[in-house]
């Protein structure tokens, strides 16, 4: 086929209609067998790997668990497992490093989730062959045409699509410098401008450095504290007027439409302003996101299980909670030390024991 196209293109010219369309069609037809073969090879590889699961399970301490089903996708594969009697998903989570070693994956490639039926003797293993965040992901364009639809922000770390509904919700983009906050904000703005039932107001306390490029798409942009206060005061007045209108109509919820759009306020540099406020209060420079760490620390020190903490803060798995918040989970470990002291007594602090390092004996 390609030989015939080349011969014809030599005579007529490659840009002469319908030669470009024919070239595109031939490319698509030629790519389909390659794509199908690639997916088939990946499926066979996973099937062979799962055939050895009984050996892997015995090696990591999950003997008796067995594979129920498996699927292969662009980023890796997923499999559902039936656990042996007495085994739970917490046992599987504890064995993740061993499972990664047994499967021959890179570290951090394995995630463990409950199955949709939430049965205690089942779990789902998610294994990544490719890190979805290893390279930049081109933006495909707006994924919505209405604020009533969830916005696609790309894949999570486990390649599951990140779709977020912003209707009647507050949202916060948080992260360290260079973590992608501005990128997430730009994806949000690119989707909001495609919605016909939205009016966009914005506050950029960095003098418009971040949201300035969107100025032509924003109905109102504040770049100074005075402008921001005036914008928020007007927003409150609009909300109160809408509340009065809903009450008069016997309604409780505002349903956005092109005629009666939702008012969306995008606020940039909140963390920067928060740090300025804490400095003026005389308590040093703090980040707004540190409140999240504080919450995790309080839950951990009061004995809340790791799985419940992970669910509360919205993590896809406990792996993220353990990795990111490991330093604030320490109080739970100290709680264990306190229990040991209560059992064996605190002889280390006895002045008569002759120890010069009695203050460190408890942790030893």
Chart the SSEs and their pairings:
Elements lengths: L1 H11 L6 H33 L1 H8 L5 E7 L3 E7 L6 H6 L1 H8 L6 E4 L8 E7 L22 E5 L5 E4 L16 H12 L5 E7 L15 E3 L2 H25 L12 E7 L1 H11 L9 H12 L4 H8 L4 H7 L5 H15 L20
Parallel strand pairs: 7-8, 7-9
Antiparallel strand pairs: 1-2, 2-4, 3-4, 5-6
Question: What does it look like?
Answer:
This protein has 364 residues and is α/β, with parallel strands linked by helices. The protein has four domains: 2-38; 52-128, Hypothetical Protein Ta0175, Chain: A, domain 2 (Alpha-Beta Complex), CATH 3.90.1070; 151-277, no CATH class; 290-360, no CATH class. The protein has helices at residues 2-12, 19-51, 53-60, 89-94, 96-103, 181-192, 225-249, 270-280, 290-301, 306-313, 318-324, 330-344, and strands at 66-72, 76-82, 110-113, 122-128, 151-155, 161-164, 198-204, 220-222, 262-268. It has a four-stranded antiparallel beta sheet. A three-stranded parallel beta sheet has the order 8-7-9, with helices on one face. A hairpin with an 8-residue loop joins β3 (110-113) and β4 (122-128). α3 (53-60) runs antiparallel to α5 (96-103). The radius of gyration is 28 Å and the shape is globular.
List keywords for this structure.
4-stranded antiparallel β-sheet, Hypothetical Protein Ta0175, Chain: A, domain 2, 12 helices, 4 domains, globular, 364 residues, 3-stranded parallel β-sheet, 14% strand, disordered C terminus
């Amino acid at each position: 086929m390609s030989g015939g196209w080349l011969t014809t293109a030599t005579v007529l010219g490659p840009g002469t209609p319908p030669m470009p369309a024919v070239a595109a069609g031939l490319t698509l037809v030629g790519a389909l067998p390659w794509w199908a073969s690639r997916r088939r090879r990946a499926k066979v590889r996973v099937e062979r790997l799962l055939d050895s699961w009984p050996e892997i399970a015995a090696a990591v301490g999950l003997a008796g668990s067995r594979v129920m089903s498996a699927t292969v996708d662009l980023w890796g594969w997923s499999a559902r497992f039936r656990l042996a009697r007495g085994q739970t998903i917490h046992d599987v989570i504890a064995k993740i490093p061993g499972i990664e070693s047994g499967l021959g994956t890179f570290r951090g490639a394995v995630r463990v989730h409950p199955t949709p039926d939430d049965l205690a003797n089942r779990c789902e293993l998610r294994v990544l062959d490719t890190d979805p965040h290893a390279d930049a992901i081109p933006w495909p364009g707006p994924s919505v045409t209405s604020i009533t639809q969830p916005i696609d922000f790309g894949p999570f770390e486990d390649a599951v699509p990140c779709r977020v509904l912003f209707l009647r919700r507050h949202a916060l983009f948080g992260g360290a410098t260079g973590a992608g906050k501005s990128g997430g904000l730009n994806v949000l703005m690119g989707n909001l401008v495609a919605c016909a039932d939205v009016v966009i107001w914005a506050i950029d306390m960095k003098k418009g450095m971040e949201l300035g490029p969107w100025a032509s798409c924003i109905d109102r942009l504040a770049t100074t504290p005075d402008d921001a206060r005036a914008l928020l005061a007007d927003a409150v007045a609009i909300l109160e007027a809408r509340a009065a209108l809903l009450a008069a109509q016997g309604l409780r919820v505002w349903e956005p439409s092109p005629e009666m759009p939702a008012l969306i306020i995008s606020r940039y540099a909140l963390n920067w302003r928060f740090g300025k406020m804490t400095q003026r209060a005389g308590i040093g420079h703090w980040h707004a996101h540190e409140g999240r760490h504080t919450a995790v620390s309080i839950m951990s020190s009061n004995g809340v299980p790791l799985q419940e903490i992970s669910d509360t803060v919205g993590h896809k798995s406990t792996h993220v909670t353990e990795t990111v918040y490991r330093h604030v989970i320490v109080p739970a470990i100290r709680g264990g030390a306190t229990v040991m002291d209560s059992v064996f007594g605190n002889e280390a602090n006895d002045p008569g024991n002759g120890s010069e390092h009695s203050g460190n004996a408890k942790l030893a």
